[in-house]
Amino acid sequence: MEISYWNKDVETASRQDIETIQLSRLREIVASALSTDHYKRLLPKVGIASASDIKTLDDLRKIPFTMKDDLRQNYPTGLLSVDFKDVVRMHSSSGTTGIPTVIYLSREDMESWTDLVARSIVATGGSRDDVFQNMMSYGLFTGGLGLHYGAERVGMMVIPIGGGNTGKQIQMMNDFQTTALHITPSYLLHIHSKLAQSGVTLEDLNLQRAFIGAEPHSEETRQKLEELFGIKCFNSYGLSEMNGPGVAFECEYRDGMHIWEDGFIPEIIDPETGDVLPDGELGELVLTNLTRKAMPILRYRTRDLAHLYDGVCRCGRQHRRLSRIKGRTDDMMIINGVNVFPSQIEEVIMRIPEVGTNYQIYLTKKGAIDQLTVKVEIYSKIFSGEASQLDQIKKRIAEELRASIFIHPQVQLHEPGYLPVFEGKAVRVVDQRDQM
Ligand code: AMP
Ligand code: ZN
């Protein structure tokens, strides 16, 4: 396979060279951090009063973690390190509690973010030959604009359609012979279910690749999408606190996401103790953004659970790879004392060929006992077929789930279109136990 690079020197740099870049950038970012109200208070307490107190990369570990709550408490400008007039962009996410967090980027920060996104796109084999339909929402969410700028920089023809309006999405894919998409996996599944009704066939389209991310999804979902569309799907990971997309992206080998380590220092920690874990062990991902000067964030606890690969990738890049996100520490369901991640349920149901393109997990209570109900859409041909076949599918899903998560679920089969559709991040779990 011929490998394309955006910035070959940095992408194929040796581990030693990557670490040299990291150390010099860590010093610079610590210097910026020391001009924010928040870190000015914190860093001197751990012996870091100036950038020169960072002697080696290990000194990073002296720095306390930054939590989502720190961002909220510092809203709106406690983490700003430049003059307000040097900010050229802000993004914000409201999260679940409604108290917003905000991030700021200077012109220089926009430059490095855009470059990392361009690098990510090229690592998938994307190029100026592509017609790129960006189905992530534009606005305060970073997914839309983040990929947009990187794709333009690569020279792709960008269709900035944003999320939703499935009929129009399909029409545009057909009219402009779109080759590349950026989309959540759940919405891409939905688009497939709408293709049949649209009169447009897969043969009419020219799709080749999709960048899928913004929400947890299983390998089984990726495989299903690749089979349904006959395309390659590349996992894309990012979060607004670290700019947005362009933190980690799969290369053409699609085996783990390269974290661009000249831009970020990743650590995996035990979420209970905060201890840093060796590569290969599952834990919470902690990220330090090395380039965003307008708003430095050091050792940010992402709450995403994953591990770092320890081997080197066949593409020649030495930037370490991040595994698929298993779930979030706050996503874990405790069902009658058993810990279950939604992704474990998704893995099982997406393996079953009769299962269609949507599902949802419901948690309720019967007396003191938790009940798990998995609602699954089944392809219409099968749904309107023999009742006995439906019974068999139901049984099979229930048994495979029980074998995998050790909980016996109720399984409901539905026809396509029954369950709610999400154009951005899907809500897969509805927990009604508090209301019972
Ligand atoms: P936001 O800050 O709104 O962009 O949300 C970021 C969060 O979305 C991350 O912390 C992850 O929990 C989730 N996320 C983003 N990309 C992925 C991905 N490729 N796989 C799993 N989860 C993801
Ligand atoms: Zn690679």
Bound molecules: adenosine monophosphate, zinc ion
Radius of gyration: 22 Å
Number of helices: 12
Integer average pLDDT? 96
Largest sheet: 8 strands, mixed
* Spatial arrangement of strands, main beta sheet: 4-3-5-6-7-8-9-13
Helix content: 25-40%
Question: What do we call the CATH homologous superfamily of the largest domain?
Answer: ANL, N-terminal domain
Poorly predicted runs are none
Q: What is the fold named in CATH at topology level of the largest domain?
A: Rossmann fold
Shape: globular
The second-level CATH architecture of the largest domain is 3-Layer(aba) Sandwich
Count of domains: 2
Amino-to-carboxy terminus distance: 56 Å
Class by SSE composition:
alpha/beta
Instruction: Tell me what portion of residues adopts beta-strand conformation.
Output: 15-25%
| Assigned CATH class of the largest domain | Alpha Beta
Give an overview in words:
- By secondary structure, this protein is α/β, with parallel strands linked by helices.
- It folds into 2 domains: 1-330, ANL, N-terminal domain (Rossmann fold, 3-Layer(aba) Sandwich), CATH 3.40.50.12780; 333-435, GMP Synthetase, Chain A, domain 3 (2-Layer Sandwich).
- It is 30% helix and 25% strand.
- It is built from 12 helices and 20 strands.
- It has helices at residues 8-11, 15-33, 37-42, 68-73, 107-123, 142-154, 166-175, 185-198, 219-229, 342-350, 380-383, 387-405; strands spanning 87-93, 101-106, 131-134, 157-159, 180-183, 209-213, 232-239, 244-250, 257-259, 264-269, 283-289, 300-306, 321-322, 327-328, 333-335, 338-340, 355-366, 369-378, 410-414, 429-431.
- It has an 8-stranded mixed beta sheet, sandwiched between helices. Strands 10-11-12-14 form a 4-stranded antiparallel beta sheet, with no helix packed on it.
- The mean pLDDT is 96.
